[in-house]
Amino acid sequence: MKETSEIDLLMRISEGDRNAFRELYQRYTPALYPFVKSLCNDDALCEDIVQEIFIRIWDNRAKATDIKQVRSYLYKSAKNRFLNELRKQKNERTVIKNRLFNTIDTETPEQQLTFKEGMRLGDEALARLSPKRRIIVEMSTREGLSLDEISLRVGASKNVVKKLLYSGLATIRNQEIIKYLKCLLPVITFLTRF
Predict the structure, then answer these.
(1) What is the pLDDT, as a whole number, of residue 18?
(2) Which of 10, 11, 102, 168 could form a disulfide with 64 if both were Cys (CB 3.0 to 4.6 A apart)?
(3) Other residues' Cβ atoms within 10 Å of the Cβ of residue 32
C-alpha cells in the first residue's frame, strides 16, 4: 500500500481526521523518540516531550497545513521543548537555592544538617562526572554562567559545552538527584510555609 504524503496527512489532520493523526504519530515517533532521548537521557521526560509535541499538533490541527517540513518541525519542537524544560529546572533550582541560602541562619540544627547532607550528596554526584563535565556543570549551576561564557573559559565550542552540560545534568539527575531532593524535602517543606 502506498504511503500517504505529508501534505495529505496534514490536510486530513486539519480537518480533524484522527486516523491521519495516528498515522503521523506512528510514522514519526520511531525517529523522534531516539532524538529526544539523545538530548535528555531521561525516559520519562523523553516520553513527555514527544507526547506534548503531538498533542500540540492535534490541539492546533486547524493550522496543521502551515507545517512545511514535518520532520524539521518535529525535531525543532522537541529541541525547543527540551530547552524550555532545562530553563524551568534551572529556575526551580535558583528559587530553592535562594530560599535556602537566605534563610539558613534561622533554621533549626536538624534542618541545617539536612541541608548540609543534601549539599554533600550533590557534591558526590558532581564528583562522579568526568572532570570537564564537572567543571561545566559547576560553572552553569553554581556560578550561573551562560553557555557563551563557559565556552570562553574552557576553550571549547558552544555546542560542545551545551552537549557536555546537558549530559552532565542528565547524569546527575538520573543518579543522585532523587537522594538529594529527599534530603532537601524537609527544608523545602519548611520554607514553603512562609
Answers:
(1) 93
(2) 10
(3) 21
